[in-house]
User: Fold this.
Amino acid sequence: MGRRIVFHLTDSGAPPGSWTVTVRDRDREPDGHPVDGKLNSNGAVMQPDTSQPNHPATPTPVDLSQGIGPDLGTAAGRREIRNATAASAMGNLTEWFDYGVYAVAVSYIAVHFFPTEGGTLMALGTFALSFLVRPLGGLVWGPLGDRMGRKHILALTILMMSLATFLIGVMPTFDQVGVLAPVLLVLLRMVQGFSTGGEYGGAATFMAEYSPDKKRGFFGSFLEFGTLGGFALGTAVMLGFQVALSEEAMMAWGWRVPFMLALPMGLIGLYLRNKLEDTPVFQELEERGEVQERSSLFELIRTYWRPMLIMSGLVIALNVVNYTLLSYMPTYLEGQLGLDPKASLMVILIGEVAMMAVIPFAGSLSDKVGRKPLWFASLIGLFVLALPLFWLMGRSFPLAILGFAILGLLYIPQLATITATFPAMFPSHVRFAGFAVTYNVATAIFGGTAAMVNEAVINKTSFLLFPAVYMMVACAIGLVATRYLPETAGASLRGTQIPDAHETGILADTGAADART
Assistant:
């Protein structure tokens, strides 16, 4: 990347008919400060006048008490935050639409691409394989997003992701091209994983930095509304095709259509994102010359190992539960509990719609009481009730709906607060990278493999309640991590320090009230 120069034309203090250009070079001296200088109308280069108070040697401190995002008191501000929310959620919806469709279409994928014994497990393994590439995506997209801006990376990732999903829908099968078919499927899943490594962390960072500090939980929850919307839409589309088509038609070509719908969805998301400016927080970083031009994984880990470790524990709990409930559950209900395919999809769809109805309220509640109380309530509830609710789902179709819905509602306090919690664990100049690397590594190991681990253990041991036990172990890890999670509800995300609710968030208000009493 070339050198980046900012010019400011001024006439203050200059003789009549002359002008002065202030030059700020975004390349830095060894001490970390930008190189400044002036060029006057006679062509003479002047050094900055450091003796004057209006030429500080270091940037002025950021006033964290002042918000810089959209003003919700104006029509323009409300329109801007709505557009930012829609642009973020649409990308997330496209991403998870693919995962939702693939999770439901596992039986078709197995027949067409892995027509051997153990084909279902191989299809689930291909699902998990895409997650193994996500850390690589986080390592590439994260630092780029901190250097080039959130918006540009999100435009690239949604395009790659939707195109790869579309191509799955038009690929030849094993019967047509032999072993090349599963090879192409694996390659496309890897492209999806690589792009998702930047998409999710970037969208969460984008939404968190656009949201007003006091309502970050509420607006951030709509990103996860897109997650559930993608899963629910994928499930609904597959269910609609199964109802409308015969099983022969569904097996022959019907399963392809949902994958092909991802491309127009991605193009809509790209259009929405291109209409927006980058986040106010990132723009301020650029104006102050605090964007990191170079970064390394070693430096990131050395400096921010603590929030990365805490976040990893939270992500383990979050994604073992997430992928067990939303990705593995159709396979579990059909293959292990013997539920009719249409009935199992109806269970998932009803549960997802119920979760979508509740998620904005959970996000808004976290703005008032904090993120940690909601995480504690969710993790404890799932730890206590996972076993009895999985047992309940095996009794009958109505009880399967009830059990899944309760599990989903217990999970909502985690899901609703991801966007408000995780980006706030890092300062703005490394936020995209810190989030993307940490989230994707933990997700690759524990999230993407959840369906495969559950299926393999059940096939080996015939212990149908193993998914509940697996969720309980993950929730126990999450409880330990939540104990050390700093509260950031209401805290400003500006500046190069880790946000702290004791300074500008809900705990600052409490502290001030305590001091007055």
Remarks:
- The two ends are 55 Å apart (CA to CA).
- The CA atoms of residues 72 and 78 lie 5 Å apart.
- The longest strand covers residues 20-28.
- Residues 1-57, 511-517 have pLDDT under 50 and may be disordered.
